[in-house]
């Protein structure tokens, strides 16, 4: 862990959750696409087992259970705080018109690159639908800041940071779930990674066409080391077959991002490596902090049960998702990786027109 990241963690740990900063944000807007690692409430009203809007989720968050799959802040909350936004980036499901100028969070628990991923869990907002939701936001922005002109909105979006984190569920809730999906019998890990990255590249190209230029793309995590996947494979060590498939996906993704950057004029793609390990400050690295439900979706907390006390010592909150403490580390790493996007960006944003 770099000294810069350590300093960021110290700063963000002591910052209030209710008011982040009194200065202008370092970029005018921040848009978020992803899965449950980023979701902050988009799944709350869906018919799905991928929900986190109940206690003990949010036990360390001032608003309680909001739909975040954590005891407190998630990774993008930390990034938004470090970027200097006054409030967390709102979920698309509830974002007001006066909020969307500074960004929207489209992430959805169980979402994947492929439309069919996690269909056994019920409702979810896959990457293609998240793109559709972003198009809806852009139409709203045309009225809010463009005075009817899409060109002015595009100028605004060109300055925004876009972070995207997809691929985890295409393995957790597709390729490595043969009870529901045939992908692991139809494709080798390499072939499947090629299919995912090809589709992902098209989706990122669509974001570019909408006006995105500054992309922070999270690599898929080493999900073979999550308690849920170790339980699924009946082992107490990381599942090499799962992590090996993830490495193939990330390797192909890095190459694809380089190709996109060379083809899409003015674009910049930053690949954000998944963490290989954490500071020794985390004493519990293979067990969840909350009691796991046997009724609700796989690996999620049992409703209304008391979690562990020393949450700062745990990496995993439930069997898939990190604690707030781990997200402080990952969020600071992400912020550092994105530094070229905000270091040279002039401060300020378009005013909201009267509506």
UniProtKB/TrEMBL annotation:
A molecular function (GO) term: hydrolase activity, acting on ester bonds
Listed Pfam families: Lipase_GDSL
Highest taxon in the source lineage: Eukaryota
Compartment annotation: Secreted
InterPro entries: GDSL (IPR001087), GDSL_esterase/lipase (IPR051238), SGNH_hydro_sf (IPR036514), SGNH_plant_lipase-like (IPR035669)
GO cellular component: extracellular region
GO biological process: lipid catabolic process
Keywords carried by this UniProt record: Hydrolase, Lipid degradation, Lipid metabolism, Secreted, Signal
Signal peptide interval: 1-23
Similarity comment: family membership: Belongs to the 'GDSL' lipolytic enzyme family.
Annotated protein name in UniProt: Uncharacterized protein
Organism listed in the record: Lactuca sativa
């Amino acid at each position: 862990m770099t000294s810069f990241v350590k300093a960021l963690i110290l700063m963000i740990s002591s910052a209030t959750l209710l008011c982040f900063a009194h200065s202008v944000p370092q970029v005018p807007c921040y848009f978020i696409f992803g899965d449950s690692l980023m979701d902050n409430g988009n799944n709350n009203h869906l018919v799905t087992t991928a929900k986190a809007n109940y206690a003990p989720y949010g036990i360390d968050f001032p608003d309680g259970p909001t739909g975040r799959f954590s005891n407190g802040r998630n990774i993008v909350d930390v990034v938004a705080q470090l970027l200097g936004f006054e409030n967390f980036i709102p979920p698309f499901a509830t974002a007001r018109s006066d909020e969307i100028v500074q960004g929207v969070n489209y992430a959805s628990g169980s979402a994947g690159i492929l439309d069919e991923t996690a269909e056994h869990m019920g409702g979810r907002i896959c990457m293609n639908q998240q793109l559709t939701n972003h198009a809806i936001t852009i139409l709203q922005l045309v009225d809010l800041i463009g005075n009817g002109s899409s060109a002015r909105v595009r100028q605004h979006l060109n300055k925004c940071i876009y972070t995207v984190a997809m691929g985890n569920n295409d393995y957790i809730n597709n390729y490595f779930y043969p009870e529901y999906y045939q992908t692991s019998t139809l494709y080798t890990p390499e072939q499947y990674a090629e299919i995912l990255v090809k589709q992902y590249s098209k989706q990122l190209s669509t974001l570019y066409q909408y006006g995105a230029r500054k992309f922070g793309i999270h690599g898929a995590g080493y999900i073979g080391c999550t308690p849920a996947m170790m339980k699924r494979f009946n082992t107490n060590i990381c599942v090499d077959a799962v992590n090996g498939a993830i490495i193939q996906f990330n390797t192909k993704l890095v190459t694809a991002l380089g190709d996109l950057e060379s083809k899409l004029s003015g674009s910049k793609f930053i690949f954000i490596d998944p963490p290989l390990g954490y500071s020794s400050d985390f004493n519990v690295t293979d067990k969840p902090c909350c009691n796991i439900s046997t009724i609700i979706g796989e690996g999620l907390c049992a409703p209304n049960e008391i979690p562990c006390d020393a949450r700062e010592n745990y990496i995993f909150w439930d069997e898939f998702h990190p604690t707030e403490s781990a997200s402080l580390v990952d969020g600071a790493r992400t912020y550092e990786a994105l530094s070229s996007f905000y270091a040279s960006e002039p401060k300020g944003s378009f005013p909201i027109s009267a509506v």
